[in-house]
Amino acid sequence: METRISLRFLLLFLSIALVLLFTWVHLPYAPPNTTELLDCTTNSPWCTSKNRFQSKLTNLLKKPPKPTRHHNHASDTPHHPLDPLTIQEVNEVRSILSSHALFKSSAYALHSIDLEEPEKPLVLKWKKGDPLFPRKASVVARVDGKSHVLTIDLSTRQVTVQETGSHTGYPTMTMEDMTAATLAPLANAEFNRTIIQRGIDLKDLACLPISSGWYGKSEENRRLIKIQCYSMKDTANFYMRPIEGLTVLLDLDTKQVLEIFDKGKSIPIPKAANTDYRYSAQEFHQVMNKLNPISIEQPKGPSFTIEDEHLVKWANWEFHVKPDARAGMIISRAKFQDPDTGELRNVMYKGFTSELFVPYMDPTDDWYFKTYMDAGEYGFGLQAMPLDPLNDCPRNAYYMDGVFVAADGTPYVRSNMICVFESYAGDIGWRHSESPITELEIREARPKVTLVVRMVASVANYDYIVDWEFQTDGLIRAKVGLSGILMVKGTTYDHINQIPKEENQYGTLLSENVIGVIHDHYIIFYLDMDVDGSDNSFVKVDIKKEQTSPDESPRKSYLKAIRNVAKTEKDAQIKLKLYEPSEFHVINPSKKTRVGNPVGYKVVPGGTAASLLDLEDPPQKRGAFTNNQIWVTPYNRSEQWAGGLFVYQSHGEDTLATWSDRDRPIENKDIVLWYTLGFHHIPCQEDFPVMPTVSSSFDLKPVNFFESNPILRIPPNVEKDLPVCEAAASV
Ligand SMILES: *[C@@H]1O[C@H](CO)[C@@H](O)[C@H](O)[C@H]1NC(C)=O
Ligand SMILES: *[C@@H]1O[C@H](CO)[C@@H](O)[C@H](O)[C@H]1NC(C)=O
Ligand SMILES: [Cu+2]
C-alpha cells in the first residue's frame, strides 16, 4: 500500500495536471521554449504524450487510415478547407505577427490562434480535389492590456485588425495565466504566513485559479481571478482537502495579490483517508465480484475510414471532425448518403459545444463567485487530456491529436485528444416477430451499431465526456457524461446530527468535514442545421388535447399535432414543458417527400434541467443562454459563442439571449439551432471521492427526411461472420 506519493510520481502527475488549473508550489513553472515545435519526447507539460496507441492500431487495421499518421505533426498539410491550422501554419502566423507593429510594443499574449474558416458558401461549394481557399488564421491577442482580434491571411501575409465592438470581458485565459495565477500568492509573505498558520506545509499546497465572474463596478478595468488552495498531504485527491475560507484575490495581469480573505481558521482541513481514487491506492479487502474482461472485436477491422486526418466516413455518414481549443471538438459538414438515391444529403453544417455554465448554489463569501463558463474562460479543448486507450475508448478506436498554441504562439501537440470508434452495446436497430396466430414464422431483428466521436475535458476537478454518436438510421445523438471530482466545502461538522436545523449548508455532508455543494451544469450546443440545403425553417409541432363534442364519439378527448412555423427569433425561444409537449423540427420548406411532407430533422430533448436562478442575478445574466432550452437564430458567423466572444468577466451583453431578442426573421433562412443540456446536481455520498458517470443526451432525428425506413436493407448478423473466441460465450 502506497500512501506517500513519491516525488517522481508527483512530477509525472503534475506534468499532466499542470495544463489543467492546478499547480504544485514547488514545481517551477517552465514556459515552453521558443523552438519551432516543443520536444514531446520529454515529459513536457505542454505535450502530455503518453500511451500512443495509433501505431499499433494501424497495424491491426486491414484498411489503415491514410495517409500513415506521423507522430510529431511537423509536416502536416491541410487537405480540407476546415482542417485546423497545422504546426507549420501556426509558425507562419507567429512570424507574420512578429513583424507587425502591434507586437513591437512591450507585453503581449496570444490567447488563441485558430483557423479562420472560409465563408460558408465557399465551403459548401468545395469538393475534394479542388484547390484550398487562401488559408487564414484568427488570432486573439492581448497587447498592453487591450484585447484584439486579428485575421492573418497566410498567402498574402496581410494582417487585418477586426473591430470587436465595445464588449466587456476578456479572452479565454491562457495556460500561462492559469499557471502563473496559482503560483503568484507565494510571492506574498502574508499568504505564506496564513498557510503555515493553518498548519499546512507550503510544499503540500495545491491551488486552483477560479474565474471570478462579474459582480459590479469595483471589478471593472482589471482582469481578476480568485485563488483557492488545498492540501495535497497524503492524497492525490487534494480537492477533498480544501483550506476553507481562504480566498486570494489576484490581478491576473500584474500577478499582484490584492486581498487575502481568511475567515476559515476554525474549519479543519478534511482528512486524507479514503480520498484517493487511484487503483493503486485501493485496499482490496472489500467484497467486489470481479467481471471477466470484455471488449468489442471486429475480425474484419473497423468499417470507418478517416481521410486526411479529419474526414470520417462510416456507413452512410460522412463528416469532418477537428479539435478546437475553445469548443473541444467541432463536427462539420455532416452528410448522409440517401440509401434510395445514393445522393449525399446535407444534415448539419457545424455542431459543437459552444459554452458551459456551472453555477454553484452557495451565496457566501468564498463561494458566490463560483459560476464557471468552462469554454470561454478556461478553453474546453485546452482542458481535454489524452484519452486512455482501452478505458476511455475501446480497442477498436482511432485517435486524433490536437494542435494548440502557448501564449507566445508556440504550437504544441495534444495527443489522443479525440477518439472515433464503432460501438455495439447489444442494442436492437429494429425488429419484428410474429406470433403463431398468424402462422407466419417471422423473427426479423437487426443489431444497432453506431459510430462514436469522443472527447473528455478535465476542467480542474470535473470531467466532461462529450460524445457525438452517429446511427445508421440517420440519427445523431449528442451526449454529455459528468465524472471526476466534486468541488467541496470544508465544514466543522462531521455528522449531520450536529448541524443546527436553521443553518444552511448549501449541500450534502459527504464525509467528515466535507460538504458537496449543490450546483448546476449547462452545456449549450451550437447546431447549424442545413437540412438538404441551408434555407430551413423551425417548426414547433404542438401536441394539444382536443375535446370531442358529445355526439361525435364515445371518446371524450384525443391528441392532435398542430404545426407552427416560427417567423422570428422570439417564436423559437422554447422552454420545455411536460404538460404542453411539442416536437421541434428543422425543415426544408422547399424540399418535399414523395407524399408531400417537408424533409426535416427534429431535436429530441432527453433528461435535462433548466436554470432557476433570478434573471437579474449577475451569473444568470452572463449565462443567459440558459434562459431557454432551445433557441433559433439566423446564421451569422460572428454569433457562435453563446456566452459572448469575450466571456471572462463579461457583463452578459453579448450572449445568445441578447442576439435572439433582436427578433430577426428566421423563416426559410439559413438558421442555427441551439440546445442546452442541463443537470441539477445535489451531491450524494457515492460521488465521493470520485463520481460515477452521470449522462444525459439529446437527439437530432430524421423526420420525413427519408421516404421510408433507411435501414431496411441492412443485413442481420450471422454466426459465421462473428469471431469465436476461445473462452466461449457462457451457456
Ligand atoms: C513563500 O513560500 C514559498 C515556498 O516555500 C517560497 O518559495 C517563497 O519565497 C515564499 N514567499 C515569501 C514572500 O517569503
Ligand atoms: C451578426 O452578429 C453581430 C454580433 O452579434 C452583430 O453585430 C451583427 O449585427 C449581426 N448581423 C446581423 C445581420 O444580424
Ligand atoms: Cu456536478
From TrEMBL:
* Protein name as it appears in the record: Amine oxidase
Quaternary context = Homodimer.
| Chain segments annotated as transmembrane | 7-27
Cross-referenced InterPro entries: Cu_Am_Ox_Cu-bd (IPR049947), Cu_Am_ox_TPQ-bd (IPR049948), Cu_amine_oxidase (IPR000269), Cu_amine_oxidase_C (IPR015798), Cu_amine_oxidase_C_sf (IPR036460), Cu_amine_oxidase_N-reg (IPR016182), Cu_amine_oxidase_N2 (IPR015800), Cu_amine_oxidase_N3 (IPR015802)
Please note every region of biased composition (Basic residues): 63-72
PTM sites of type 2',4',5'-topaquinone: Y462
Cofactor binding note = Contains 1 topaquinone per subunit.
Domain Copper amine oxidase catalytic, by residue range, is 295-711
Composition bias type Basic and acidic residues, residue spans:
73-82
Family membership noted in the UniProt record? Belongs to the copper/topaquinone oxidase family.
Q: What is its EC number?
A: 1.4.3.-
Keyword annotations from UniProtKB, A to Z: Copper, Disulfide bond, Membrane, Metal-binding, Oxidoreductase, TPQ, Transmembrane, Transmembrane helix
Q: Which cofactor does it need?
A: Cu cation
Q: Metal-binding as a keyword? A: yes
Task: Name all Copper amine oxidase N3-terminal domain ranges.
Answer: 171-270
Q: Which reaction does it catalyse?
A: a primary methyl amine + O2 + H2O = an aldehyde + H2O2 + NH4(+)
Looking at the record, which segments are called Disordered? 61-83
The alphabetized list of GO BP terms reads:
amine metabolic process
- Record note on modification: Topaquinone (TPQ) is generated by copper-dependent autoxidation of a specific tyrosyl residue.
The terms under GO molecular function for this entry are: copper ion binding; primary methylamine oxidase activity; quinone binding
Domain called Copper amine oxidase N2-terminal: residue spans: 80-160
- Residues annotated as catalytic: D374, Y462
Origin species, per record, is: Fagus sylvatica
Q: Does the keyword Oxidoreductase apply?
A: yes
